[in-house]
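Lab notebook page, bench 4
Experiment: in silico fold of construct C2
Operator: M.H.
Input chain length: 379 residues
Purpose: comparison with the prior construct
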Amino acid sequence: MKAGLVLFAAALLVAGCGEPPRKIEAVASTIPVKTVVVAAESWPEEYEATGTVRARTTAVLSSKVMGYVREVHATIGEHVSAGRLLVVLDAADLEVNYRRADAAREEARSAIPEADSGVAAAKANLELARATFKRMNDLFASKSISNQEYDEATARLKATEAAYAMTESKRAQLSSKIAQTDQERRAAEIQRAYAQIQAPFAGVITAKSVEPGNLATPGATLLTIERDGEYRLEVPVEESRLPIIRSGSKVFVSIDALNRTLEAPISEVVPSVDAASRSYLVKIDLPGMPQLRSGAFGRARFVLGSRPVLTLPASALVERGQVQSVYVAENGAARLRIVSTGRKRADRVEVLAGLSSGERVVSPIPVALADGAKVEMQQ
């Protein structure tokens, strides 16, 4: 009875519709896209080395004498001018030595008038003795005086000459003593100046290890100063690259902290190779940049030649984390394919793996594009 009722209801439903049911089909939409052909281009062959920015001129300031630090006029990061007073030592003993040397110099100088007077008097006596001896010699020639008188006149002349020579010698000794005291005073003055440590050139203070009250000893570092505005990038380079890198040639330098790339000359190539790293040091002069500081990270790219590479526009890349992929247009559909990329130049990217020359990739990528979507290529 239940089976009959079901058949009857079905017959009524068919009779009421009057038409057979239609078949519904989902029609997929086609996305218009633009494509580019993956092709080989000639790109420069480059070798990249990483290094550190260093100041071309660095001075480590220390004391030449021992003494307690009385004053410190510098802070880390401060710009100082050449000759500026940075550290003052308490060096009373050096001041005493200077005053003692100065007093000895003045004492020697004060004896100059007396010595000059003695020389003048001895010279006058010598001239008188010579005149007297001349007259006595004439009298002796005419047999007017005895041999005794002549010998006495000769002895007086020799004594007067000896006295004059002695006064001249004392005057010369006094001149030597004055010169000696001048040098001693100069040495004491230099020693006294060691108590005041000045900036050797204009620059910035990068390190400070002294405070008032500290005992400064000869050779112990007090301050470190770098000449401002003069920096260079020092990069270790593999020893196999030595024959092709020359001083004076220019390289491309990137400073990450400044987000800047520039061209700079190689100033020096250190020929000695580090036995541990098997590399040698290349120094690259950098132009003055206000925010540049020593210790910054930098990259140097050395152009070694050129080679053909596969490239595509950066707008064709899909980046999800560390994975890079592109949409390849093939058989009217977009297929997502993982690729491996290398260097970037302007708006193009080097393709290392995942694509072949002549393939077409979608660029730019429409928002609604997905893997397997139907696409229509446009000019």
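Observations: The helical segments are 2-17, 92-110, 112-141, 147-193. The mean pLDDT is 85.
Next step: discuss at group meeting.
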